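Could you join me in thinking about how sequence relates to backbone shape in a protein? Label the sequence line and the structure token line clearly, so we can match residues to local backbone shapes. Once you have written the record down, we can walk along the chain together.
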Amino acid sequence: MRIAFMGSPDFAVPALRALHAAGHEVACVYAQPPRPAGRGQRETPCPVHRAALDLGLPVRTPARVRRDAAEHAAFAALGLDVAVVAAYGLILPRPMLDAPRRGCLNIHASLLPRWRGAAPIQAAILAGDAESGITIMRMEEGLDTGPMLLKEAVPIGPRTTTPELHDALSAIGARLVLRALAEDPPAVPQPEAGVTYAGKIAKEDGRLDWSQPALALDRRVRALNPWPGTFFQAGAETIRVLAAEVAEGAGPPGTVLDAAPRIACGEGALRLLRLQRPGRAPMAAADVLRGFALPAGAVVG
């Protein structure tokens, strides 16, 4: 089958590789343009771009496509059977959605209609959902509103982190989109009930609000690492929290209860397991506190 693949981050790479390995003719790969990265701020291709180059596939990196008639014409000229989209990062306009013979299929990292939008993996963990999954849907102009072709669920455990769920869903998406292309299952409209939205994650979302229950903060630590990461203020330093767990304890929110250390929350306490000080390597919390005072009774922000 002659396809275009449209994706940008690590999440999309297994699907691209699976489509190529299955013998589909990948006419073109679309990815976000290279952007400055690293200490030297050198222009760096995104993961899908790099994977496409490794596979010897042609790559296009338009900065925008919504109102670019030339890009619409170039896409239509590919003569596609289908386009597969996975976390591409640009909204496709009607001329591009309609160009492939079988339309555009999206690999979405949630069980639609729950968690439409930009950050469904993080949203599912933050909400305490018991499961997440992959939905293969046929794209429309609306935000993740298209009819569904296939779904597969995966449980979210009490210690599941975003990287773990990300990798599991990425592998499922690669497998499921191959099935969708091979089987061409009937499209089922999304139910109107149960729609939720997962907005973009901002850096400030990582600040721990100690007035919240410890369970909510534990979910936040698991959901927002590695990016933007969770953090709190201890004196003049911003301390990153890389791992934590719910613990027993009570006190004014933000109060250090002991050297474990446990921090009092709006309900219960949070035991800090792994921390990182500015300019230092990540370490076990006990090792960090050997060189940084966080005494019982201190209040963190």
Summary: The domain at 2-197 is CATH 3.40.50.170 (Rossmann fold).
